[in-house]
Amino acid sequence: MYVLMDIMVSPSGVGISVSPYVAMCQKIFEQAGLTHTMHGFGTNVEGEWDDVMAAVKRCHHELHQNGAVRITSHIKLGTRTDRSQTMADKVTSVQGKLNPS
Amino acid sequence: MYVLMDIMVSPSGVGISVSPYVAMCQKIFEQAGLTHTMHGFGTNVEGEWDDVMAAVKRCHHELHQNGAVRITSHIKLGTRTDRSQTMADKVTSVQGKLNPS
Amino acid sequence: MYVLMDIMVSPSGVGISVSPYVAMCQKIFEQAGLTHTMHGFGTNVEGEWDDVMAAVKRCHHELHQNGAVRITSHIKLGTRTDRSQTMADKVTSVQGKLNPS
Amino acid sequence: MYVLMDIMVSPSGVGISVSPYVAMCQKIFEQAGLTHTMHGFGTNVEGEWDDVMAAVKRCHHELHQNGAVRITSHIKLGTRTDRSQTMADKVTSVQGKLNPS
């Protein structure tokens, strides 16, 4: 089962700046070989369900080991059976409605 | 790793009423032996990380098999290392601030 | 336009325990006369769109004034035009599928 | 109060493809003069609180008028008082941790 995910990880107890922790998760997605793109409120990640979920778990583990006492992740998971679709396809589909050629 | 989760499952291609599909997931959480409480915009579920995640995956699988062409789940995941905490503890903590005895 | 909302408010820069801040928002919803129910990962609130949104804004304002340097709110907004529906209706609808009488 | 928002709008009762409806909201953000960037699971929008919220309301209104019987929006709202920050600043901050110069 292929899944498109959006994830925003919020560590607590590490001060106001959370960017070093967000960067740790980026590296985990990278090392896992998952397609990923960061935006202002999270990261789009896509891949096989088990691979994506293993990366999320590793992200929580690693942030805890690096001092995050409390972590809340906000995740969106999209699966579909009618056809294959990448994250890029979704954006292109909307853009096609905005700028029909 | 113990996790507190909130999940809202949104199937597409099944018409306006999604309550039969939400009920399917409720049964899966129940059969998995996970503590769960439904509210107006999702369900609080808690348990060991792998058990909770297996239930989420089974929920997507089962809804697809029952006709949901497209599923989007919105999930919150909370883990902490400083102390153990249940979902009920969280609610009680806020209520204590509202009605100090 | 009537709206069903779920809101989870996360203040940063105030330490690990955020329950006093969650309690402040509860009081704002109460004072605004909005139907509201807390759960483990947020609060269900319902009412007229403008009243609900004014309460959300007031919540951010008040938490900032009480020391929250940074606030992130996660919100779900549900509107529908086919029929009126309360938050309680939604829960009852799923329960009816779980325990058909 | 300046706000960074992420919004994902999900209309129901309009079939599987929701991209025409997502495009409608994009146009509303554009016409409102708000900085906005689409990603695979939503759109980052930023501006003054009241302007951003007025656009969200208009988005729900317009989609209902165009046949969406039921709409659920998933929104993240970020405000801070310590310093001004744009959506682009947030991404740059993480990238700086990933690729220190």
Quaternary structure classification: homotetramer
- Give a quick account of the main beta sheet of chain A: strands, pairing sense, barrel closure: 4 strands, antiparallel
State the end-to-end CA separation of chain A: 33 Å
What is the helix tally of chain A?
3
Textual characterization of the structure:
Four copies of one chain form a homotetramer. Chain A has three helices and four strands. The first copy, chain A, starts with a strand and ends with a helix. In chain A, strands 2-3-1-4 form a four-stranded antiparallel sheet, covered by helices on one side. In chain A, helix 1 packs antiparallel against helix 2 (49-65). The longest helix of chain A has 17 residues, at 49-65. With 101 residues, chain A is of the alpha+beta class. Chains in contact: A-B, A-C, A-D, B-C, B-D, C-D. The interface between A and D is medium-sized, with 33 and 33 residues.
Summarize this, please?
The structure is a homotetramer of 101-residue chains. Chain A is an alpha+beta fold and 101 residues long. Chain A has helices spanning 19-31, 49-65, 87-98, and strands spanning 2-12, 35-39, 42-48, 70-80.
Main attributes of the structure:
101 residues, 42% helix, alpha+beta, homotetramer, four-stranded antiparallel β-sheet, 3 helices
